[in-house]
Design goal:
Blueprint lengths: L1 H14 L2 H22 L8 H4 L1 E9 L10 H17 L6 E5 L3 E7 L4 H9 L4 E11 L11 H4 L7 E4 L19 E4 L30 H12 L5 H6 L10 E6 L5 E6 L4 E2 L3 E9 L4 E8 L1 H14 L9 E5 L2 E4 L10 E5 L4 H13 L5 E10 L1 H30 L2 H27 L5 H30 L4 H33 L3 H31 L3 H4 L9 H4 L22
Parallel strand pairs: 7-13
Antiparallel strand pairs: 1-3, 1-15, 2-3, 4-8, 4-9, 4-12, 5-6, 7-8, 10-11, 11-14, 12-13
Helix pairs in contact: 2-12, 2-15, 4-5, 11-12, 11-13, 12-13, 12-15, 13-14, 13-15, 14-15
């Protein structure tokens, strides 16, 4: 007899502690709500497709013979650099992430200049300082005997460079130092250059100087490439210099101060972008023009000093060095003396272009070249319409669930609705807090995940309610039926939620982009379903089982024994007559 008494005491103890669980979940709700208001964020952060913004897809393009360069390490490095560049524009909520093995997705919220952002994220920013060997008009050239180098470089006569220590000394009468300061390489691109040879503006072959013929096959190939190069053709400009190693000579295109294209033969790179320690766009008050100031690292200073020392002893154009950014000559100043730890790039810069170039150079070059695959811009109005449509879909789904619960479970539907409200409150506060905490953004797939979660949560209630009904059908009263149904329902709910969470986790791992929003929301709501069922639904059912409306099996309670077809257990009818009343609990 002792065992049955112990079982009755255990059952009574299990029924006597529902308030503790309810207090715990109430404390959690209050804490999350308080944290939400304390953080100053009372609504979830919206993604690009709901709030509006721009999505840029970039594809990594390996250099010829270096297909292995597109790897996980370089992609992660590129993501970090692009993210710093975009944040350098003042955008604090941009999202940069990889997609697959060769794509990068950049999501930029509304309020940002999309054209400016596209230029920032897509620019590789491979910076090299190369000595100039030959310069000519931009059109294709007809082979001619090589004239003096100074004649070929007349367009660059206004480009100058000096060392910073002359900043405090009186200007020299020498043209090469009269308007420069020590330690800075200055390209005075605003000065009118010498007119280019006739015919170059139309793209026709001109009689510009070309390098002297060489017996070296590599040099001959470079001379041929220079002769045939037409910098007036945008397609040729975009392809020139691709796949060229820093240690090899190359040809390149660039605009002079008058805005016309010139072409160059350049020597091996003497200084690289990684040697630049810092760069920024500033306004030169003396000349009234925007420039980009660069500070070199210790190693970069030594390299820069060595190359300028050599160039200062040459005649034009061999005393010029080209500042090459992504294969294009952005400046080609001449050097009259050895320079030290800093340099500046000047020319036809606006405030924005100078600051953009400084931003790019400061955060370093991308380890890979990227092509822009697609650009999608969502207006705030379209995002608002999509959000409205998603909320309407969620409301319709919730209404259908409520109608089903009211029609089939009657009074029990109150428990289900209260549980759904608690689950919704927990989901909303957590999503709101995760926005500033981990950068979670509610996008349209995430809204779909929340709608699917309504069905998952309702399914858990239905499993528990049906287990209780099964116990009542076997002839038990409501209070023991609630307790006996719980262990079986609990196992089923945990297994079901585990499968849903596992599917969400796998989907989150193997996918990228917006689909991850669906998987994350589905996984989050699945975990919350377990919390709500254990800490709210079960305790509420234990309390309601003590109420007369439910305990007596009222027709509108959803637990009417007659409506459920309750009858004595069949197994007790063997050998003895079945009792007319409900059997007592062991």
């Amino acid at each position: 007899m002792a065992a049955p008494k112990k079982g009755r005491r255990a059952a009574a103890g299990g029924q006597g502690k529902p308030g503790r669980a309810l207090v715990l979940i109430l404390i959690a709700l209050v804490a999350l709500t308080g944290g939400m208001f304390w953080s100053g964020h009372t609504t979830p952060r919206l993604g690009i497709d709901l709030a509006g913004g721009t999505t840029i897809t970039l594809k990594a393009v390996p250099e010829p013979g270096k297909e292995e360069s597109v790897n996980e390490t370089n992609m992660k490095t590129a993501v970090g650099i692009i993210e710093r560049r975009v944040n350098g524009l003042g955008v604090s909520e941009a999202e940069v992430q990889t997609q697959g093995g060769e794509n990068i997705i950049v999501n930029i919220p509304k309020g940002t200049n999309s054209a400016q952002a596209r230029e920032q994220v897509g620019t590789t920013a491979q910076l090299y300082f190369r000595p100039v060997l030959t310069v000519a008009a931009g059109g294709p050239t007809t082979p001619q005997p090589t004239p003096s180098p100074s004649a070929a470089a007349s367009d660059k006569a206004g480009d100058k460079a000096t060392d910073d220590k002359d900043k405090a000394t009186p200007p020299s009468t020498s043209p090469s130092s009269s308007a420069t300061t020590q330690g800075r390489a200055v390209t005075e691109g605003l000065k009118a250059p010498t007119p280019t040879p006739s015919g170059s503006a139309s793209g026709k072959p001109s009689a510009a100087p070309t390098p002297a013929p060489s017996a070296d096959p590599a040099s001959a190939a470079l001379e041929k490439k220079f002769t045939e190069l037409n910098c007036l053709d945008s397609k040729q400009r975009s392809n020139v210099g691709k796949g060229v190693r820093p240690e090899d000579p190359t040809v390149a295109c660039g605009k002079n101060g008058a805005g016309t294209w010139e072409k160059y033969v350049l020597g091996p790179a003497e200084v690289e972008g990684k040697d630049v320690d810092d760069a920024k766009g500033v306004l030169d008050q003396q000349r009234g023009m925007w420039i980009v100031q660069m500070d070199f690292t210790n190693a970069g200073s030594k390299k820069f000093s060595a190359i300028t020392s050599k160039l200062s002893q040459q005649q034009q154009p061999q005393n010029q060095f080209a500042i090459v950014l992504d294969g294009e000559v952005v400046s080609a100043p001449s050097v009259s003396q050895t320079l030290s730890a800093s340099a500046e790039i000047s020319g036809s810069f606006t405030q924005q272009s100078a600051q953009d170039l400084g931003n790019i150079l400061s955060y370093g070059a991308l380890p890979l070249t990227f092509e822009e695959q697609s650009v999608t811009t969502v207006s705030p109005a379209l995002g608002e319409e999509q959000l409205k449509a998603g909320l309407i879909a969620g409301a319709i789904g919730l209404a259908l669930v409520v109608i089903y619960l009211l029609a089939y479970y009657r009074g029990l539907s109150v428990v289900a609705l209260l549980s759904l409200l608690v689950s919704a409150a927990l989901t909303y506060t957590l999503m709101t807090l995760m926005g500033p905490a981990i950068g979670f953004a509610l996008n349209l797939p995430a809204v779909c995940g929340a709608i699917v979660a309504i069905g998952i949560t309702a399914d858990s209630f239905i499993v528990y309610f049906e287990r209780i009904r099964d116990e009542i059908r076997e002839g038990r009263t409501l209070r023991p039926a609630v307790e006996r149904a719980w262990p079986r329902a609990r196992r089923t709910i945990l297994v079901s939620d585990f499968v849903s969470f596992l599917a969400a986790a796998v989907l989150f791992i193997v996918t990228v982009g917006k689909v991850q929003g669906f998987a994350f929301t589905l996984g989050l709501t699945t975990l919350l379903d377990v919390v709500v069922v254990f800490f709210f639904t079960k305790p509420i059912m234990t309390i309601l089982a003590r109420k007369k409306f439910f305990a007596s099996g009222h027709p509108w309670s959803g637990l009417d024994p007659k409506r459920l077809g309750a009858k004595p257990p069949l197994r007790r009818s063997r050998g003895v007559s079945a009792p007319t009343d409900h059997p007592k609990e062991a």
